[in-house]
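Take a careful look at the sequence and tokenised backbone pasted below. I need to know what the token row says about the fold.
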Amino acid sequence: FNAKTPVAKRVSLLQDGSTFASIIKSQAGSGLAATATAQVTKVTLITTSEAQVTYDILVGGTPELKNQNGTAVLQGGTWKVGVASFCGLLTLENGGSTSSLPAACKSGT
């Protein structure tokens, strides 16, 4: 959620990011991606390797989606955005439809 972050870095900060690399790359060029940011407002550890995260999505600095619930996971020694969170955002982007989402989103992994 930072247009200045290189795509490779974005991929590395997503759980199983290589699975979603093509989506992340294609979204990097969109107008929305240039102005969207995320702001974490709360983190609650569930286990030593999973956390519940509350965040806002801002577009041009203005909160557009407030109090979104997501997950973060510790993978390879780095905290990353959980697949469930990323897939949830893709579903929102697709107007609630999951039919065009990657298989990793549909399998719940």
